[in-house]
Each structure stands twice: as structure tokens, then as C-alpha cells.
Amino acid sequence: MVDVIVIGAGPAGVMAAIRAAELGAATTLITRDKFGGMAANDGPVPVRTLAHTARLMREARQLDRYGVAVNDPHLDYPRLLARVREVIEQVHSLTPFRADLERLGVTIYEDAGNVHFVDSHTVEGDRGIRLEGDKIILCAGGCSRKLPVPGNELTATHSDAWSLTSAPPSMLVIGAGATGAQVASIFNAFGSQVHLYEAGPRILPTEDADVSAVVAKAFRDSGIGVHESFGAIDSFQKTASGVRMLFSKNGKRLSEEATVAIVAIGWAADTGGLNLAVAGVNLDSRGYVTVDSHLQTTVPHIFAAGDITGRLMLVPQAVRDGYVAATNAVNEVRLSADSSVNPIGSFTDPEYAQVGLTEAKARATHDVLVSKVFFEATFRPIIDGRTTGFCKLIVDRTSGTILGCHMVGERAVEIAQMAAIAMAGGMRVDELARIPLSFPTYADVLFRAVSRAAVELQPARTEQQDFVRFAA
Fold first, then answer.
1. Which of 15, 209, 326, 411 would bridge 442 by S-S if both were Cys, CB 3.0 to 4.6 A apart?
2. What predicted TM-score, i.e. pTM, was given to this entire model?
């Protein structure tokens, strides 16, 4: 029997195995497929490569505006997929995690096939591996949700982009959360005619309402058909050139056709083959593994981390959860996985990002000041011809600290990290406003929003306030 078995070798699993071994536990890491999980093989790394390609094509179309004469860019999709594979292979070769695991003595079983419980301490893989552990950490990740309607087998997910031979002439994207919005934005840049469908009243429903509105307008301006509150899907049908979606709204039957239909209605826990019932591990009402704030499941010696818990299904948060779960499993401590600072962003065009409370949630519990600066009022976006967007800060009037930051625009994902660091450090806006940032940069939009908030909160004329007034 080993001390700790970690199931899944994505970000959560790798960190859990490293942390458990660092604490002196004899650790085994077992994974169904390749090392690195969805993040490296089918998630942020390859999708970000596609997004970078979309950015290059967008920038190439601006060259004439700056006096650079070139032919119109065209996309060689097979070559792009070759580049995606190159990036994945390079990421695999450069990652220090495998070397760290080997240095710490972690036993790794890769390509083990589906892993399932035999009893609460024993697991085995389809390819004959059988392991017994004192503690077990579930990091099996997630998978795309399916639409429960006739013809759903005719639809695809973002993963199926790797099997295409060219950018499709037309595409339906069903679901306008982070994944759907990113797919729509990327393939729009590649030249596909994209229609984005959201059942709710606005795209990006978990974002601040201002973010949803600006991104929706930018998408429409770029040629994406954005359909909010579109109704309910009845079925999908095969056509000579692709697929037809049949849907109903207000008693009317409607339809839309495209070459490809991508379903992006959410991410489910990948628990189907684990046989959790044998181990006594419960699922919650949404189908995710039930955990407490210490990432302990309903079985005391079994913990879970990452997408399988349905908490914050993002790479940085999965890494943090893996660390917490392993620490609690090995040391039997009560380290909490909860955090109020969780920056989130997506590489759409334009990018959007957020950290902390939305304006609506902040107003429900705090006396707030909202400071909003548009990209078109700052120098670097004007220089680069990227003036769409804004930075919106929600500040607590009593403490002067940032409760939330919401952005749309070029480099929004990177800029939001600065707000996250300030929030984690408990910095007041007047303290942040005194930091002299490089000029001209995109971060200036955040600095201006911070400076305006500092002036409004402390209007008395002092040397400090003269500085932030000038900066704002």
C-alpha cells in the first residue's frame, strides 16, 4: 500500500502529487491519458495558440493603416494545427513538473486507461494496473456537457477543432460562456460566418453586466451573429452541407444551418468511469464530487481537487486546490481552499477579464465607489488602434480597497492580474495610485481608474492628491 494515490495528471493532480511527495508521502500518480491533462493537451495551451493566430490575422489586417503594404492574410489551417502540435510538444518538453515528480520519487503511470475504484482504498486501470493507497486524491478533471436533444451526435465540441481540415465556412456556437465566446471569436477571425446562441438574456452571464454588453457589441461589429434569449433547442438534423438546428421561441419554430455546430454549454465532472459509489464518495446536485472547504469528500481519506469539484474550473485555481488537498491529506490539517481573489479572463477579441465582486454584488453588501475609464481615453490603445474597452473598479468607500475589477480590451487578462495582486495585498487605491508605472502601456487604464477613485475618496488637496490628479 502506498501513502497517497493521485488520480489525474492535469494541473491539480500534478501539484497534488508534488506536494504529497514533498511532505514525505510515498506517492503514485495515475492518469488515463497523457501527462498534463486537458490544460496542456486540449485546453488553455492549444486554444491560446489558436487565439494567438487569430490575433496575428487581426493585426495583419491593420498593417495598411500604418503604411505597411502586404497582401491580405489567408489561413493555412493544417499548418496551424501543426503549430498547435509543436507548441504542445514544446510545453511537454519544457515543463519542470515531470522532473520534479521523478526527483521526489513519485511513481507515474501514464496512459493507464479508465481508472475506477474497486473499494475505498483500491483503484485499478483498464490496462491492468491495480493500486492500494492509504489516502486518495481525485483530480480526474472534467468534460464538455452534451445537449439532451435528438441529433446531439451531430454536434461537436471545441476539442473537435483539432480534427478539422480547414476553418469551416459557417459555424453555430451554442452557449456563450467563456468557452463559447472564445470559439466564436477565434473562428470569426479565421473567416467563418459565426452565429453565437445564448439561452439567457446576455452572453458571458457570469461577468459584470457592462462587460457582457461591450463584448456583445464588439462581436456584432465584427460580424458575429449574437442571439441572446434565443429560445429552446428542439433537435439537430443533418443537411447536405452540415447541420441544422431547430429551436422554438414564443411558440414559433425556427431554424439555423451551418457547416459545424459547436456545443459549449458547460463543463461537467469526469466521474463516469470512476465507480465512486463503491468508494462511498457522494456527488452534489450538479454532478460534481462533494467536498468541504478543505477539499475532503464524504469519505474522510479521499480528497478531490480541480474541475471534478465544480468549484473554479481554471488552471491556477486547480493548482492551488491540488496543493491544499495534498497538504490536508498527508498532514491531516485543515487548510482552506477558499479565496476571495480569483482572476478570470478569456482571450477573445476583445479580451475580457475580472477579479472580485461584480458591481451588482458589491452594492448589495458595501457602500461602493465605481471608477470607470475607457480605453479610448488612454494613449497606448490609441497608438495601437485598439481603443475598444474599459476598466471598471469597484472600491469600498470605507476602506479604500478594491472589491472588484472588470475589464474589456486589449491585454485585459494581463492587466487584471495587477488588480488581483493589489486586492490580495489589501492595498488601498491611494497607495496603488502612487506607483509610477511605465508609459505608455495598457496598464495605464487601470492606473487612471485607480487614481480617479483615490481623488474622489480623498478630495483634500495634498501633495499626494496633486500627484494622482495629474495622473488621472
1. 411
2. 0.89
